[in-house]
Amino acid sequence: MILGHSYLSSLNPEGLGTPLAESVTSYIPRLCKLHSISFSTFLSDILFPKMGTLSLVNSIKRGCSRVYTRPYAFNGVSNFTEKIIHTLELLTLQKNLIYITLLPLRNIISCQNVFRHYRAWCPICLAERKDRALTIYEPLVWTIKAVRSCLVHHISLRTQCHKCGNMLPVIARHVQNGFCSTCGHWLGLTDTNNKYPVDPIPDFDSWKDRNIGELISILPETINITRNETLRTVLTEHINLHYKGSASAYARSAKIPKATISRWQAGTALPSLENLLKISYRSQTPLADLITKGRLQKDAKVFDYQDSESLFPASPRKTNDFDYAYVKRHLESVLKSKSENPLSMTKVAENLGYTKKTLYKHFYVLCRHISAKAACHRKARKEQRLGQERLFVEKVAEQLHIEGVYPSYDAIENAAPKKGIMRSHESRDAWKNKLREFGFENGG
Hints:
With 444 residues, the protein is an all-alpha fold. The protein folds into 3 domains: 1-226, no CATH class; 227-311, Orthogonal Bundle (434 Repressor (Amino-terminal Domain)); 318-444, no CATH class. 48% of the residues lie in helices and 0% in strands. The chain has helices at residues 24-35, 39-51, 54-61, 72-75, 79-92, 123-131, 203-217, 229-243, 247-254, 258-266, 273-283, 287-292, 308-311, 324-336, 345-352, 356-362, 364-402, 409-415, 425-437. The longest helix is centred in the C-terminal third of the chain and has 39 residues, at 364-402. The chain starts with 23 loop residues before the first helix and ends in a 7-residue tail after the last helix. 31% of the residues are buried.
């Protein structure tokens, strides 16, 4: 490799310094598209070997999905995220990729439970960028669980493909920005002239989304903050001013455990994004100012937290708050639903805000029926897919034989629209049967 040249294309990240700065889980698929490789191939053949994580390389090659269930490892603040960014910067010679993650905030806030496990997007944003021939990318702000609406069009972010109805994991083997990783359908509007249905966004959600966007836009300014000592100081001053120095009174008002506040003041723990939003909203201080300047508004008013349950709902619900009648009605409606994609018990539990263990404890029979219904659907889908693959193998083998070409394993694999079609026993059996039919006695 020539000195000074990048191993990969030196692709510039989109939207740096704005609320719509790109995410790592959007940047990598763009690199993959530019080099005509899949996401999984990029991880197993380029990124992870350069990082020296051979266990993950072997894991991906064996088809293990451990990497794909941890999107926070790419966009978050962990040491693993730092290794990914360092390696990407070496491969692309870009020096600003840290700002497409929350790494600049690693010494300021705790990013536990911050990120979504499934993609969220604004279909209008995607359509407008496509119509204007701009780069299709997915901003970091869309990956944050607390953000519910588009910062530009003020509509609720979508989380399900309108074609297949599936929720899409943030990381998938063949992920592509703006497209469904399950069915390949375009996620943006197909006709921007049609009026898109607008959901009313509560004022608090709009405020929260806007403040998180502003925080992302000032990430370059937070890089030199090694520890948020000023935040600890201002929190203590705020408690002294409004609560006569009583951390317990503040904890009750803000519905934050007193032990948590004590750890913040002692510097042994970092506040979560949710709790910082509480403090910010309570004092009507922009979240970006609270973090970078460590101060609250001089005229900060005492905010009444009577409605804080609706502003910051607890998750998951506790067993002693179990709404028996509501949950039973919901489970019965799920079981009676004639949807083409029945919900799994994991998804049902997530929607209700309870653990599966709690639901099984109260409604074992209903839960078993729902689980069986979803399993039956998955089995039918698998049989359908295997049947289609078997027919494809037979058709390709016949075509190659007619052309005078030996229908080898590799020849059929290369003719398939996606890799791995010959991994199933059904496909291999169909291939061997065709070889015998053509007079090749060994049958492969």
